[in-house]
Design goal:
This is Glycosyltransferase RgtA/B/C/D-like domain-containing protein. Pfam families: DUF6020. It comes from Sporofaciens musculi. It contains 22 helices and no strands. By secondary structure, it is mainly α. The chain is globular, with a radius of gyration of 23 Å. The relative contact order is 0.12.
Length: 422
């Protein structure tokens, strides 16, 4: 296997290297890149199964109840979305597993801070989980940075230690993803992903109210995004517009572009809001959708000959099960069932988190609300993404049993305390 492209941090390097290593192993051992994909999927599914098993054990240890423990097992084992993603090579799968572990370990820090800091193993495993989470998706770092002050506030007598731990982990992540990566010749990724919302808003104004844009502003905009890409505007996906984004032109005209974005927003506030809602409403709206990516690309993406240079093919030994997963992940067969259609909805994790936070506030267990900063923070980053996709929502979906379990674990302690006082 030879290097086809320059590595850059736009895609997680650790995931790229892991996938590449599996492909290389398949080629060396079995003379087949298909075998390499199989090796990757088996390792990933085993890791994911181990993380899920650990979460189930923790829910049992927290005494959340038999129904929750058994329900969690059934959720992880028989959820068709999880089954399909377990054998998908997208980076979001492994990130979801590490994100889950960080939530579990963070809850245990707040639940028993003294025990955490008195055991070196707990500190090491927490640090490793956070670093891997941040390395598997850039959002992980930003979410953890936001989480640090909430964690510090939630732990009495250990605030300085928590602060030092959090800052130390962020420094480690920045060193790995910065100087160390650069030393190995890894270039920085394209910044267009984080500009998806501004690009979409400007493109919507360009198509809906072009008279509000001055000739000077049009000149700057088209240097960065050519006219043909602006005219390809899709209100539900930023991909057609951002595919024409010129990074070098943006760097030279950054302040001018941002000023134009602000000025056009002041002139067209309703159009800007419409653009934002079209790109993000699937993350909070439970109901029929006009256009969405709330499914799994079950048969792969970029499988055309011009892209599939490794000649990867799919072969199933279980055609009935294969068709079931395809229908459930792409055909949305679950939408026929009232309750299941809600539970499988991309917006369900968000409303479950809101309910969980509300219950904790009612019980006045404010410090445990900090745990929900992690999934809520990640949810916030999804709103700023190029498109609302199921794979982006996967880290929130796999956390559903934990949101329920954490609230029940706190509720059990709350009721136990009240019974003692009574």
């Amino acid at each position: 296997m030879k290097l086809m492209h320059q590595l850059n941090s736009g895609h997680p390097i650790i995931h790229t290297l892991f996938l590449n290593a599996c492909l290389f192993a398949g080629d060396c051992i079995f003379k087949s890149y298909n075998a390499g994909v199989l090796i990757y999927c088996i390792i990933q599914s085993v890791l994911l199964s181990g993380i899920f098993t650990y979460c189930i054990y923790k829910l049992y240890q927290w005494r959340t109840g038999t129904i929750v423990v058994v329900g969690t097992f059934l959720f992880f084992a028989f959820n068709p979305i999880i089954q399909a993603f377990a054998f998908t090579t997208t980076k979001d799968v492994l990130f979801s597993g590490m994100f889950l572990l960080v939530i579990v370990f963070s809850f245990e820090i707040i639940k028993d801070t003294e025990k955490f800091f008195s055991t070196r193993t707990y500190i090491i495993r927490y640090g490793a989980s956070v670093i891997l989470m941040c390395m598997l998706r850039n959002q992980g770092k930003y979410v953890f940075i936001v989480f640090i002050p909430f964690l510090v506030i939630s732990v009495k007598n250990y605030r300085m230690k928590c602060l030092i731990l959090g800052i130390s982990l962020i420094i480690c992540v920045n060193l790995i993803m910065g100087p160390i990566s650069t030393a190995f010749g890894i270039e920085k990724g394209n910044m267009r992903e984080m500009l998806s919302v501004p690009m979409q808003q400007i493109a919507r104004v360009w198509n809906k109210n072009p008279s509000s844009i001055t000739e000077e502003e049009k000149n700057i905009i088209t240097r960065i995004i050519p006219v043909e890409y602006l005219e390809q505007y899709d209100e539900y996906s930023a991909d057609p517009v951002k595919s024409g984004f010129n990074s070098q032109a943006f760097t030279k005209n950054m302040l001018k572009f941002l000023n134009i974005w602000i000025n056009l927003g002041l002139k067209n506030p309703v159009i800007y809001l419409e653009s934002f809602f079209c790109g993000a409403y699937q993350y909070w709206y439970i109901g029929p959708r006009l256009y969405c990516y709330d499914g799994v690309f079950y048969d792969g993406s970029f499988m055309d000959a011009q892209y599939d240079t490794l000649k990867i093919t799919r072969h199933t030994l279980l055609p009935v099960y294969d068709e079931y997963l395809r229908n459930m992940s792409n055909g949305h067969d679950y939408n026929r069932f009232p309750v299941l259609s809600v539970v499988m909805n991309m917006a369900f994790p968000f409303w479950l988190m809101i309910i969980g936070i509300s219950i904790l506030m009612y019980m006045r267990k404010y410090k445990y609300i900090s745990i929900f900063i992690l999934p809520i923070g990640y949810w916030g980053t999804c709103l700023l993404g190029p498109v609302a996709m199921l794979r982006y929502d996967l880290p929130l979906i796999v956390g559903i049993p934990l949101y329920i379990g954490i609230v029940l674990a706190v509720k059990r302690d709350y009721e136990k305390l009240n019974s003692v006082i009574a």
